[in-house]
Design brief:
The protein has 461 residues and is mainly α. Helices cover 81% and strands 1% of the residues. A hairpin with a 2-residue loop joins strand 1 (269-271) and strand 2.
Length: 461
């Protein structure tokens, strides 16, 4: 029986991870150019190198974690021992030492690379922990729901409160020195909160699914078993397609509001005396809709099955994305309603995908007798990071193809292209995910057979 305390503890881990992911993915580019004083082209190249490097680090982290044997288990020790180093690396990444232009580039590469290495080192074992807390698929659905719920909560905190915190700690004068102090202080508080949440995750969780006794299997066996794992291969295609759907929409959102909606004509919206622009509220609504989808995922999938839930959610997201294309850009009520509904559909599938990856680990153990949970989760994480990088790059390529020029009036063709990036092109990704998930073979009935057989084998050991 998984207690509420353990469910919360597991959720705390992704809240910590998501807060830093938002810092890295949404704020770090602006920080490097406008606060640290680096050239945008240099920063773009650095992001490409460090993020691809980070993606390929994930399998290494998974392979190493699979071979850890301690009294705390395989994956929890990584969370315990890397929580504080990861927090320190995050703080150093947003530090602004007085260096020459070349020195700034070297410092940024060093600190950003260190942060990415430690992010993989702690996040991959955290993800794999889902596969060993409980052998029961329904428990994993619930744990995935808690994980993704706290991930969205962490993201909402960053989207809504980080910049107000930066402004507060920068003070009224807000010189460049003051702004640097404001950024560093806000990041330091975020890092401390992240470390505390990771440590609570370690303290509140337990590893119940034990590895096969004896020496770990050779790496080549793990890789061979992974490549023969058909459910994992299919799920990989579904995950990449879903990430392309999300990343293209997110990447085009600010352009859509600036050039199609022309949000400057609407001014700001004040909530609790905090001024927000339409694009910010749109993105925050997406997080709220995603959180609602996460909450609905477990009870719905426990009732009708994970495959049916994912297929239905992405089919609806496909249709709503097509509707977004024909929606008038100034129909704000319709635009925001579609954003909430599409985000609800997208949010409901991600906890189920991670739960299904854990089922793929069971399938591998059932077929081969070998369980490489860390490798399976890490390669899945790697593919999703690559999918996100490809989707982000696609947004830039498509904007160029449509004739986009920054800070200018856009042609009708360009405006139509931006709208396609918010609708038709993501719809293709959503439709592909429907096709992949429809082919996924691990039904609830088959999983029950696999789980029962694995329990018998473990009792005989």
């Amino acid at each position: 029986m998984i207690t509420l305390r353990e469910k919360l503890g597991y959720g705390f881990g992704d809240a910590a991870s998501s807060m830093f992911w938002k810092l890295f993915s949404m704020y770090l580019m602006f920080f490097y150019t406008d606060i640290f004083g680096m050239e945008a082209a240099v920063v773009g190249t650095m992001f490409l190198i460090t993020r691809v490097w980070d993606s390929f680090l994930d399998p290494v982290a998974g392979i190493l974690a699979d071979r850890i044997r301690t009294r705390w288990g395989r994956f929890r020790p990584c969370i315990l021992f890397l929580a504080l180093p990861f927090a320190v690396a995050g703080i150093l990444t947003f530090h602004t030492p007085g260096l020459s232009p070349a020195g700034k580039v070297i410092y940024a590469y060093a600190t950003c690379s260190l942060a990415m290495i430690l992010y993989s080192g702690i996040n991959v074992p955290y993800a794999a922990l889902l596969g060993v807390i409980s052998p029961e698929p329904k428990d994993r659905n619930i744990l995935s729901t808690f994980r993704m719920s706290f991930a969205y909560i962490g993201s909402l905190v960053m989207l809504l409160l980080f910049m107000p915190a930066v402004n507060h700690f920068s003070g009224e004068a807000a010189t460049l020195h003051d702004r640097r102090h404001g950024w560093l202080t806000a990041v330091t508080l975020t890092a401390l909160l992240s470390a505390i949440l990771f440590l609570l995750c370690f303290a509140f969780t337990r590893e119940r699914v034990k590895p096969v006794e004896g020496k770990p299997a050779p790496l080549k066996n793990d890789l061979r078993d992974l490549l023969k794992n058909r459910p994992w291969t299919i799920l990989l295609g579904a995950g990449i397609s879903a990430l392309l759907f999300n990343s293209v929409r997110d990447g085009a959102a600010l352009y859509y509001f600036k050039y199609c909606v022309r949000e400057e004509l609407f001014g700001t919206v004040s909530i609790l005396h905090i001024p927000f622009v339409l694009s910010g509220l749109y993105l925050a609504l997406g997080q709220a809709g995603g959180l609602a989808g996460v909450i609905l995922a477990a009870p719905l999938s426990n009732r009708i099955g994970k495959r049916r839930t994912c297929t239905g959610a992405m089919a609806v997201a496909t249709l709503l994305s097509l509707l977004f294309f024909i929606a008038d850009s100034h129909s704000l009520t319709l635009i925001f309603t579609l954003q909430a509904l599409i985000s609800l559909c997208a949010g409901s599938i991600f906890p189920l995908l991670w739960s299904m990856y854990a089922d793929c680990a069971d399938y591998s153990e059932y077929k081969t007798g070998n369980r490489a949970t860390g490798l399976l989760f890490s390669t899945s994480s790697m593919s999703q990071k690559l999918g996100w990088a490809i989707g982000t790059a696609m947004t830039g390529w498509l904007l160029t193809r449509f004739g986009f020029a920054a800070n200018q009036s856009q042609s009708a063709e360009t405006l139509r292209g931006i709208k396609m990036c918010m609708s038709l092109i993501p719809a293709i990704g959503a439709l592909l995910s429907v096709i992949f998930i429809h082919l996924y073979p691990l039904t609830e009935k088959r999983l029950k057979t696999i789980t029962t057989e694995l329990e018998k084998r473990r009792l005989r050991r």
